[in-house]
Amino acid sequence: MIGRKGDKMDITESTNQPKKMSPKQSGGIDSELSKLGNNLVTKFHVLMRITQIYDSKNVALNQFIAEFLDTINTLIKREGALSLKIVKNDFFLNDQPLRYSVEGFTSFKYLLTQWKKRLIGEVTFKTLVAEEMLRYFIYAFINLEEGCEENADLFKKQLESHHITAIEVTPLEVVEDDEEGFTIQKEDQREVGKKIFFETIGTIKEVITNIKGSQHADVRKLKRLAQKAIHLVIEDESILLGMTMIKNYDEYTFNHSVNVSIYALAIGKRLGFSKKTLAELGITALLHDIGKSKIPREVLNKPAALNDEEWELMKKHPLAGVEIVLNLKQLGEINPRMVVGIFDHHLTSDLSGYPKLYRKKEVSLFGRIIQIADAYDAMTTPRIYKKIPYTPEQALALMLLEKTIHFDPLLLKIFIGLVGIYPIGSLVLLNTREIGIVYKPNSDGRWLDRPTVLVVDRDEEGYAKKEVANLTETDGTGNYIRSIVKTLDPYKYHIDIAKYFL
Ligand SMILES: [Fe+2]
Ligand SMILES: [Fe+2]
Fold this sequence. Notes:
Layout: H1 31-51, H2 62-79, E1 82-87, E2 90-93, E3 96-97, H3 105-117, E4 120-125, H4 131-142, H5 151-161, E5 167-171, H6 184-212, H7 219-243, H8 252-270, H9 275-287, H10 297-300, H11 308-314, H12 317-326, H13 336-343, H14 365-379, H15 392-401, H16 403-406, H17 409-419, E6 427-430, E7 435-440, E8 452-459, E9 462-470, E10 484-488
Antiparallel strand pairs: 1-2, 1-4, 2-3, 4-5, 6-7, 6-10, 7-8, 8-9
The structure holds fe (ii) ion (FE2) (2 copies).
Protein backbone atom coordinates (compact mmCIF):
# COMPACT_ATOMS: atom_id res chain seq x y z
CA MET A 1 0.00 0.00 0.00
CA ILE A 2 1.53 3.21 -1.10
CA GLY A 3 -0.95 5.87 -0.15
CA ARG A 4 -2.10 7.18 3.17
CA LYS A 5 -5.82 7.51 2.67
CA GLY A 6 -7.25 4.10 3.46
CA ASP A 7 -8.38 2.43 0.30
CA LYS A 8 -7.69 5.35 -1.98
CA MET A 9 -4.45 4.80 -3.77
CA ASP A 10 -2.41 7.95 -3.64
CA ILE A 11 0.83 7.06 -5.20
CA THR A 12 1.83 10.64 -5.85
CA GLU A 13 1.04 12.35 -2.59
CA SER A 14 4.00 13.78 -0.81
CA THR A 15 3.30 15.90 2.15
CA ASN A 16 4.92 14.70 5.25
CA GLN A 17 8.21 15.45 6.81
CA PRO A 18 10.68 12.65 6.73
CA LYS A 19 11.64 11.00 9.94
CA LYS A 20 14.88 12.33 11.27
CA MET A 21 17.58 9.79 10.79
CA SER A 22 18.56 8.10 14.00
CA PRO A 23 22.21 8.56 14.95
CA LYS A 24 22.90 5.01 13.88
CA GLN A 25 21.52 5.54 10.41
CA SER A 26 23.04 8.92 9.77
CA GLY A 27 26.54 7.79 10.60
CA GLY A 28 26.80 9.13 14.11
CA ILE A 29 26.07 12.76 14.74
CA ASP A 30 22.81 13.51 16.55
CA SER A 31 20.57 16.27 15.35
CA GLU A 32 21.07 18.53 18.37
CA LEU A 33 24.84 18.38 17.95
CA SER A 34 24.44 18.87 14.23
CA LYS A 35 22.43 22.05 14.88
CA LEU A 36 25.02 23.38 17.29
CA GLY A 37 27.77 22.51 14.81
CA ASN A 38 25.99 24.36 12.03
CA ASN A 39 25.57 27.30 14.32
CA LEU A 40 29.27 27.23 15.13
CA VAL A 41 30.24 27.29 11.46
CA THR A 42 27.82 30.14 10.72
CA LYS A 43 29.08 32.23 13.64
CA PHE A 44 32.69 31.54 12.70
CA HIS A 45 31.93 32.66 9.15
CA VAL A 46 30.23 35.86 10.23
CA LEU A 47 33.04 36.73 12.59
CA MET A 48 35.75 36.10 10.00
CA ARG A 49 34.00 38.51 7.68
CA ILE A 50 33.44 41.14 10.34
CA THR A 51 37.06 41.06 11.47
CA GLN A 52 38.11 41.95 7.96
CA ILE A 53 36.11 45.17 8.22
CA TYR A 54 36.68 46.34 11.80
CA ASP A 55 39.76 46.47 14.01
CA SER A 56 39.80 44.43 17.19
CA LYS A 57 38.82 47.34 19.45
CA ASN A 58 35.70 48.28 17.53
CA VAL A 59 32.52 48.02 19.59
CA ALA A 60 30.57 46.81 16.55
CA LEU A 61 32.39 43.55 17.07
CA ASN A 62 31.21 42.86 20.61
CA GLN A 63 27.92 41.30 19.78
CA PHE A 64 29.41 38.90 17.22
CA ILE A 65 32.19 37.86 19.55
CA ALA A 66 29.64 37.27 22.31
CA GLU A 67 27.51 35.08 20.06
CA PHE A 68 30.46 33.04 18.84
CA LEU A 69 31.68 32.63 22.41
CA ASP A 70 28.28 31.47 23.52
CA THR A 71 28.12 28.85 20.77
CA ILE A 72 31.59 27.53 21.53
CA ASN A 73 31.05 27.33 25.26
CA THR A 74 27.65 25.66 24.89
CA LEU A 75 29.33 22.98 22.82
CA ILE A 76 32.23 22.58 25.25
CA LYS A 77 29.85 22.23 28.18
CA ARG A 78 27.97 19.56 26.29
CA GLU A 79 30.86 17.69 24.74
CA GLY A 80 33.78 18.31 27.08
CA ALA A 81 35.98 19.67 24.31
CA LEU A 82 35.44 20.86 20.80
CA SER A 83 37.33 20.11 17.61
CA LEU A 84 36.41 21.42 14.20
CA LYS A 85 38.43 19.74 11.50
CA ILE A 86 38.63 19.67 7.72
CA VAL A 87 38.60 16.21 6.15
CA LYS A 88 38.85 16.54 2.37
CA ASN A 89 35.95 18.87 1.57
CA ASP A 90 33.98 18.45 4.77
CA PHE A 91 34.06 19.63 8.31
CA PHE A 92 34.14 17.10 11.13
CA LEU A 93 32.91 18.08 14.57
CA ASN A 94 34.61 16.02 17.28
CA ASP A 95 35.56 13.45 14.65
CA GLN A 96 32.08 13.07 13.24
CA PRO A 97 31.07 14.40 9.84
CA LEU A 98 29.06 17.59 10.12
CA ARG A 99 26.37 17.74 7.52
CA TYR A 100 25.39 21.26 6.61
CA SER A 101 21.89 22.60 6.71
CA VAL A 102 20.41 24.42 3.75
CA GLU A 103 21.04 27.80 5.34
CA GLY A 104 24.51 26.78 6.38
CA PHE A 105 25.83 26.03 2.93
CA THR A 106 27.41 29.45 2.25
CA SER A 107 29.11 29.50 5.62
CA PHE A 108 30.57 26.03 5.13
CA LYS A 109 31.95 27.00 1.74
CA TYR A 110 33.42 30.23 3.06
CA LEU A 111 35.06 28.66 6.06
CA LEU A 112 36.48 25.75 4.07
CA THR A 113 38.05 28.14 1.56
CA GLN A 114 39.45 30.50 4.19
CA TRP A 115 40.94 27.70 6.31
CA LYS A 116 42.40 25.95 3.29
CA LYS A 117 43.96 29.18 2.00
CA ARG A 118 45.72 29.55 5.32
CA LEU A 119 46.57 25.82 5.50
CA ILE A 120 44.83 25.38 8.84
CA GLY A 121 43.11 22.01 9.17
CA GLU A 122 41.81 21.85 12.70
CA VAL A 123 40.92 24.13 15.58
CA THR A 124 40.43 22.62 19.03
CA PHE A 125 38.89 24.40 21.99
CA LYS A 126 40.02 22.32 24.95
CA THR A 127 38.39 24.20 27.79
CA LEU A 128 35.91 27.03 28.18
CA VAL A 129 37.07 30.10 26.33
CA ALA A 130 37.13 33.69 27.54
CA GLU A 131 36.17 36.67 25.44
CA GLU A 132 39.63 38.24 25.20
CA MET A 133 41.13 34.92 24.07
CA LEU A 134 38.63 34.58 21.32
CA ARG A 135 39.17 38.15 20.16
CA TYR A 136 42.91 37.57 19.91
CA PHE A 137 42.43 34.20 18.24
CA ILE A 138 40.17 35.41 15.47
CA TYR A 139 42.45 38.32 14.50
CA ALA A 140 45.53 36.11 14.57
CA PHE A 141 43.67 33.66 12.34
CA ILE A 142 42.57 36.26 9.81
CA ASN A 143 46.04 37.79 9.65
CA LEU A 144 47.80 34.54 8.71
CA GLU A 145 49.53 34.79 5.38
CA GLU A 146 47.79 32.77 2.66
CA GLY A 147 49.65 29.67 1.46
CA CYS A 148 52.34 29.82 4.17
CA GLU A 149 53.20 26.29 5.29
CA GLU A 150 54.43 27.40 8.70
CA ASN A 151 51.10 28.98 9.60
CA ALA A 152 50.02 26.39 12.16
CA ASP A 153 53.37 26.63 13.97
CA LEU A 154 53.37 30.39 13.88
CA PHE A 155 49.82 30.47 15.13
CA LYS A 156 50.67 28.13 18.01
CA LYS A 157 53.54 30.36 19.07
CA GLN A 158 51.35 33.45 18.92
CA LEU A 159 48.75 31.80 21.12
CA GLU A 160 51.42 30.61 23.56
CA SER A 161 52.92 34.08 23.83
CA HIS A 162 49.50 35.30 24.90
CA HIS A 163 49.17 32.45 27.40
CA ILE A 164 46.25 30.99 25.51
CA THR A 165 46.30 27.27 26.14
CA ALA A 166 42.62 26.57 25.64
CA ILE A 167 42.84 26.85 21.85
CA GLU A 168 44.97 24.68 19.60
CA VAL A 169 45.48 24.71 15.85
CA THR A 170 46.76 21.98 13.55
CA PRO A 171 47.99 22.25 9.95
CA LEU A 172 45.82 21.14 7.05
CA GLU A 173 46.40 17.55 5.99
CA VAL A 174 46.76 17.34 2.27
CA VAL A 175 45.00 14.15 1.19
CA GLU A 176 46.05 12.54 -2.06
CA ASP A 177 42.99 11.96 -4.20
CA ASP A 178 42.62 8.23 -4.64
CA GLU A 179 39.59 8.30 -6.89
CA GLU A 180 41.07 7.51 -10.24
CA GLY A 181 38.99 8.41 -13.20
CA PHE A 182 37.37 11.37 -11.51
CA THR A 183 39.04 14.38 -13.00
CA ILE A 184 39.40 17.67 -11.19
CA GLN A 185 36.85 19.14 -13.54
CA LYS A 186 34.30 16.51 -12.53
CA GLU A 187 34.85 17.33 -8.89
CA ASP A 188 34.34 20.99 -9.67
CA GLN A 189 31.08 20.22 -11.38
CA ARG A 190 29.98 18.30 -8.34
CA GLU A 191 30.69 21.39 -6.24
CA VAL A 192 28.69 23.51 -8.70
CA GLY A 193 25.88 20.94 -8.43
CA LYS A 194 25.86 21.14 -4.64
CA LYS A 195 25.76 24.92 -4.77
CA ILE A 196 22.82 24.99 -7.17
CA PHE A 197 21.02 22.30 -5.19
CA PHE A 198 21.27 24.04 -1.84
CA GLU A 199 20.65 27.50 -3.24
CA THR A 200 17.49 26.26 -4.92
CA ILE A 201 16.22 24.65 -1.73
CA GLY A 202 16.85 27.95 0.06
CA THR A 203 15.10 29.96 -2.64
CA ILE A 204 12.02 27.75 -2.89
CA LYS A 205 11.78 27.99 0.88
CA GLU A 206 11.88 31.77 0.61
CA VAL A 207 9.22 31.75 -2.12
CA ILE A 208 6.89 29.50 -0.11
CA THR A 209 7.42 31.49 3.10
CA ASN A 210 6.68 34.73 1.28
CA ILE A 211 3.55 33.31 -0.28
CA LYS A 212 2.35 32.10 3.11
CA GLY A 213 2.85 35.58 4.50
CA SER A 214 1.14 37.06 1.42
CA GLN A 215 4.36 38.78 0.45
CA HIS A 216 6.04 39.33 -2.86
CA ALA A 217 7.74 36.14 -4.11
CA ASP A 218 10.71 36.37 -6.45
CA VAL A 219 10.13 33.89 -9.26
CA ARG A 220 12.93 35.37 -11.34
CA LYS A 221 15.45 34.04 -8.86
CA LEU A 222 13.98 30.56 -9.32
CA LYS A 223 14.26 31.00 -13.05
CA ARG A 224 17.94 31.90 -12.82
CA LEU A 225 18.62 28.83 -10.69
CA ALA A 226 16.65 26.61 -13.06
CA GLN A 227 18.79 27.89 -15.92
CA LYS A 228 21.97 27.02 -14.04
CA ALA A 229 20.61 23.56 -13.25
CA ILE A 230 19.73 23.02 -16.91
CA HIS A 231 23.27 23.81 -17.90
CA LEU A 232 24.52 21.14 -15.54
CA VAL A 233 21.85 18.59 -16.48
CA ILE A 234 22.81 18.97 -20.14
CA GLU A 235 26.51 18.43 -19.32
CA ASP A 236 26.13 15.57 -16.87
CA GLU A 237 22.76 14.81 -15.35
CA SER A 238 24.17 12.23 -12.93
CA ILE A 239 25.56 14.95 -10.65
CA LEU A 240 22.18 16.48 -9.82
CA LEU A 241 20.48 13.08 -9.87
CA GLY A 242 22.92 12.02 -7.14
CA MET A 243 21.88 15.05 -5.07
CA THR A 244 18.30 13.76 -4.95
CA MET A 245 19.55 11.06 -2.60
CA ILE A 246 20.04 13.70 0.09
CA LYS A 247 16.71 13.17 1.76
CA ASN A 248 17.04 13.70 5.44
CA TYR A 249 16.52 17.39 5.79
CA ASP A 250 13.89 18.79 8.06
CA GLU A 251 12.46 20.82 5.24
CA TYR A 252 10.81 18.02 3.32
CA THR A 253 8.60 20.14 1.08
CA PHE A 254 11.49 22.22 -0.22
CA ASN A 255 13.76 19.27 -0.71
CA HIS A 256 10.97 17.42 -2.50
CA SER A 257 10.27 20.31 -4.88
CA VAL A 258 13.92 20.49 -5.89
CA ASN A 259 14.20 16.73 -6.38
CA VAL A 260 11.07 16.63 -8.52
CA SER A 261 12.53 19.42 -10.59
CA ILE A 262 15.80 17.55 -11.12
CA TYR A 263 14.03 14.38 -12.26
CA ALA A 264 11.70 16.39 -14.49
CA LEU A 265 14.61 18.22 -16.11
CA ALA A 266 16.43 14.98 -16.78
CA ILE A 267 13.31 13.54 -18.46
CA GLY A 268 12.86 16.76 -20.44
CA LYS A 269 16.42 16.56 -21.62
CA ARG A 270 15.82 13.02 -22.92
CA LEU A 271 12.74 14.28 -24.72
CA GLY A 272 14.90 16.83 -26.50
CA PHE A 273 13.26 19.92 -24.99
CA SER A 274 14.80 23.29 -25.81
CA LYS A 275 16.49 25.21 -23.01
CA LYS A 276 13.52 27.54 -22.86
CA THR A 277 11.05 24.66 -22.44
CA LEU A 278 13.35 23.04 -19.92
CA ALA A 279 13.37 26.25 -17.88
CA GLU A 280 9.57 26.32 -17.91
CA LEU A 281 9.42 22.67 -16.89
CA GLY A 282 11.98 23.21 -14.13
CA ILE A 283 10.04 26.11 -12.62
CA THR A 284 6.72 24.26 -12.93
CA ALA A 285 8.21 21.31 -11.06
CA LEU A 286 9.65 23.60 -8.39
CA LEU A 287 6.22 25.15 -7.89
CA HIS A 288 4.09 22.03 -8.35
CA ASP A 289 3.13 21.75 -4.67
CA ILE A 290 3.04 25.48 -3.95
CA GLY A 291 -0.70 25.12 -3.21
CA LYS A 292 0.20 23.16 -0.10
CA SER A 293 1.28 26.43 1.48
CA LYS A 294 -2.45 27.07 1.97
CA ILE A 295 -3.07 23.76 3.78
CA PRO A 296 -2.79 23.78 7.59
CA ARG A 297 0.40 22.31 8.96
CA GLU A 298 -1.49 19.83 11.14
CA VAL A 299 -2.98 18.25 8.06
CA LEU A 300 0.27 18.23 6.09
CA ASN A 301 2.20 16.68 8.94
CA LYS A 302 -0.43 14.33 10.31
CA PRO A 303 1.20 11.02 11.13
CA ALA A 304 -1.99 8.99 10.69
CA ALA A 305 -4.35 8.53 7.76
CA LEU A 306 -6.30 11.65 6.83
CA ASN A 307 -10.03 11.77 7.56
CA ASP A 308 -12.47 12.63 4.77
CA GLU A 309 -12.52 16.32 5.56
CA GLU A 310 -8.73 16.58 5.66
CA TRP A 311 -8.43 14.61 2.48
CA GLU A 312 -10.82 17.00 0.73
CA LEU A 313 -8.62 19.84 1.85
CA MET A 314 -5.49 18.12 0.61
CA LYS A 315 -7.04 17.55 -2.79
CA LYS A 316 -7.38 21.29 -3.20
CA HIS A 317 -3.66 21.91 -3.45
CA PRO A 318 -3.30 21.73 -7.27
CA LEU A 319 -6.03 24.34 -7.77
CA ALA A 320 -4.71 26.46 -4.89
CA GLY A 321 -1.33 26.30 -6.64
CA VAL A 322 -2.84 27.62 -9.85
CA GLU A 323 -4.42 30.54 -7.99
CA ILE A 324 -1.15 31.42 -6.31
CA VAL A 325 0.79 31.33 -9.56
CA LEU A 326 -1.80 33.45 -11.36
CA ASN A 327 -1.56 36.03 -8.60
CA LEU A 328 2.20 36.31 -8.77
CA LYS A 329 3.53 39.77 -9.47
CA GLN A 330 5.89 38.44 -12.08
CA LEU A 331 3.16 36.70 -14.00
CA GLY A 332 5.14 37.50 -17.16
CA GLU A 333 7.51 34.69 -16.18
CA ILE A 334 4.66 32.19 -16.16
CA ASN A 335 2.94 30.78 -19.25
CA PRO A 336 -0.22 28.65 -19.62
CA ARG A 337 1.74 25.43 -20.01
CA MET A 338 3.19 25.91 -16.55
CA VAL A 339 -0.18 26.71 -15.00
CA VAL A 340 -1.74 23.59 -16.54
CA GLY A 341 1.21 21.48 -15.36
CA ILE A 342 0.53 22.52 -11.77
CA PHE A 343 -3.21 21.99 -12.18
CA ASP A 344 -2.98 18.42 -13.43
CA HIS A 345 -0.05 16.94 -11.54
CA HIS A 346 -2.47 14.64 -9.66
CA LEU A 347 -4.87 14.02 -12.49
CA THR A 348 -5.13 10.52 -13.99
CA SER A 349 -6.31 9.26 -17.34
CA ASP A 350 -9.27 7.43 -15.70
CA LEU A 351 -10.34 10.52 -13.73
CA SER A 352 -9.54 8.81 -10.41
CA GLY A 353 -7.09 11.51 -9.46
CA TYR A 354 -7.83 15.06 -8.43
CA PRO A 355 -9.10 17.76 -8.87
CA LYS A 356 -12.40 16.06 -9.76
CA LEU A 357 -13.31 16.70 -13.36
CA TYR A 358 -16.59 15.98 -15.05
CA ARG A 359 -15.22 15.56 -18.50
CA LYS A 360 -12.19 13.58 -19.52
CA LYS A 361 -9.20 15.74 -20.09
CA GLU A 362 -5.85 14.59 -21.27
CA VAL A 363 -3.12 15.16 -18.72
CA SER A 364 -0.62 17.67 -20.09
CA LEU A 365 2.94 16.63 -20.91
CA PHE A 366 4.36 18.74 -18.06
CA GLY A 367 1.79 17.16 -15.73
CA ARG A 368 2.69 13.62 -16.83
CA ILE A 369 6.41 14.25 -16.38
CA ILE A 370 5.91 15.75 -12.92
CA GLN A 371 3.70 12.82 -11.86
CA ILE A 372 6.53 10.37 -12.44
CA ALA A 373 9.14 12.55 -10.77
CA ASP A 374 6.77 13.25 -7.86
CA ALA A 375 5.87 9.61 -7.23
CA TYR A 376 9.44 8.40 -7.39
CA ASP A 377 10.74 11.01 -4.98
CA ALA A 378 7.82 10.55 -2.58
CA MET A 379 8.20 6.78 -2.48
CA THR A 380 11.96 6.79 -1.95
CA THR A 381 11.78 9.33 0.89
CA PRO A 382 11.01 8.43 4.53
CA ARG A 383 7.56 9.74 5.48
CA ILE A 384 5.95 10.26 8.82
CA TYR A 385 3.52 7.42 8.09
CA LYS A 386 6.03 5.22 6.30
CA LYS A 387 9.31 5.60 8.04
CA ILE A 388 11.25 3.14 5.96
CA PRO A 389 10.92 4.23 2.35
CA TYR A 390 10.92 2.03 -0.72
CA THR A 391 14.30 1.34 -2.24
CA PRO A 392 14.75 2.90 -5.70
CA GLU A 393 14.26 -0.52 -7.24
CA GLN A 394 11.03 -1.24 -5.31
CA ALA A 395 9.68 2.20 -6.21
CA LEU A 396 10.25 1.64 -9.92
CA ALA A 397 8.66 -1.82 -9.71
CA LEU A 398 5.56 -0.38 -8.05
CA MET A 399 5.33 2.39 -10.58
CA LEU A 400 5.53 -0.13 -13.40
CA LEU A 401 2.59 -2.01 -11.88
CA GLU A 402 0.57 1.20 -11.89
CA LYS A 403 1.72 2.39 -15.23
CA THR A 404 -1.47 2.32 -17.24
CA ILE A 405 -3.54 4.25 -14.73
CA HIS A 406 -1.11 6.56 -13.08
CA PHE A 407 1.73 7.08 -15.45
CA ASP A 408 2.46 7.62 -19.07
CA PRO A 409 4.09 4.27 -20.01
CA LEU A 410 6.44 5.82 -22.53
CA LEU A 411 7.65 8.50 -20.13
CA LEU A 412 8.05 5.87 -17.44
CA LYS A 413 10.25 3.89 -19.79
CA ILE A 414 12.36 6.96 -20.40
CA PHE A 415 12.59 7.57 -16.68
CA ILE A 416 13.76 4.02 -16.00
CA GLY A 417 16.34 4.36 -18.75
CA LEU A 418 17.45 7.52 -17.02
CA VAL A 419 17.84 6.24 -13.49
CA GLY A 420 18.95 2.82 -14.73
CA ILE A 421 17.84 -0.65 -13.75
CA TYR A 422 19.89 0.03 -10.70
CA PRO A 423 19.00 3.64 -9.95
CA ILE A 424 21.52 6.05 -8.48
CA GLY A 425 21.72 5.43 -4.77
CA SER A 426 20.86 1.71 -4.91
CA LEU A 427 22.84 -0.48 -2.57
CA VAL A 428 24.14 -3.54 -4.42
CA LEU A 429 25.95 -6.76 -3.70
CA LEU A 430 28.73 -7.56 -6.17
CA ASN A 431 29.96 -10.99 -7.25
CA THR A 432 33.22 -10.19 -5.46
CA ARG A 433 31.20 -10.17 -2.17
CA GLU A 434 31.79 -6.45 -1.96
CA ILE A 435 29.02 -3.93 -1.28
CA GLY A 436 28.57 -0.99 -3.61
CA ILE A 437 26.42 2.11 -4.02
CA VAL A 438 25.30 2.97 -7.53
CA TYR A 439 26.92 6.32 -8.26
CA LYS A 440 26.31 6.94 -11.93
CA PRO A 441 24.18 5.01 -14.41
CA ASN A 442 25.81 3.76 -17.58
CA SER A 443 24.89 6.14 -20.37
CA ASP A 444 25.27 3.35 -22.94
CA GLY A 445 21.92 1.55 -23.29
CA ARG A 446 23.67 -1.79 -23.76
CA TRP A 447 25.06 -1.69 -20.25
CA LEU A 448 22.18 -0.52 -18.12
CA ASP A 449 23.15 -3.21 -15.61
CA ARG A 450 26.74 -1.99 -15.45
CA PRO A 451 26.75 1.40 -13.72
CA THR A 452 29.62 3.05 -11.91
CA VAL A 453 29.56 2.10 -8.23
CA LEU A 454 31.28 3.27 -5.09
CA VAL A 455 32.63 0.18 -3.41
CA VAL A 456 32.23 0.62 0.33
CA ASP A 457 33.98 -1.17 3.11
CA ARG A 458 33.20 -1.59 6.77
CA ASP A 459 35.67 0.01 9.15
CA GLU A 460 35.59 1.32 12.71
CA GLU A 461 33.51 4.30 11.67
CA GLY A 462 30.93 2.25 9.83
CA TYR A 463 31.06 2.17 6.08
CA ALA A 464 33.66 4.17 4.22
CA LYS A 465 34.24 4.77 0.55
CA LYS A 466 36.85 2.42 -0.86
CA GLU A 467 37.03 2.94 -4.59
CA VAL A 468 35.06 4.00 -7.62
CA ALA A 469 34.49 1.03 -9.91
CA ASN A 470 33.16 1.03 -13.43
CA LEU A 471 31.40 -2.30 -13.87
CA THR A 472 32.19 -2.46 -17.59
CA GLU A 473 35.86 -3.00 -16.73
CA THR A 474 37.19 -6.39 -17.74
CA ASP A 475 40.28 -8.32 -16.76
CA GLY A 476 42.88 -9.40 -19.33
CA THR A 477 40.75 -12.32 -20.53
CA GLY A 478 37.64 -10.32 -21.27
CA ASN A 479 35.70 -11.23 -18.12
CA TYR A 480 34.06 -8.49 -16.10
CA ILE A 481 35.95 -7.74 -12.92
CA ARG A 482 32.79 -6.95 -11.00
CA SER A 483 29.09 -7.58 -11.63
CA ILE A 484 25.96 -6.84 -9.63
CA VAL A 485 24.40 -9.91 -8.04
CA LYS A 486 21.42 -8.26 -6.34
CA THR A 487 20.24 -5.14 -4.59
CA LEU A 488 20.30 -4.82 -0.82
CA ASP A 489 18.21 -2.87 1.64
CA PRO A 490 20.31 0.03 3.01
CA TYR A 491 18.21 0.12 6.18
CA LYS A 492 19.16 -3.44 7.05
CA TYR A 493 22.81 -2.63 6.58
CA HIS A 494 22.58 0.70 8.41
CA ILE A 495 24.10 2.56 5.52
CA ASP A 496 23.22 6.20 5.07
CA ILE A 497 23.27 6.47 1.30
CA ALA A 498 22.88 10.27 1.30
CA LYS A 499 26.27 10.64 2.95
CA TYR A 500 27.99 9.47 -0.20
CA PHE A 501 26.39 12.14 -2.34
CA LEU A 502 27.21 15.18 -0.23
FE1 LIG B 1 1.14 17.46 -5.23
FE1 LIG C 1 4.65 16.63 -4.89
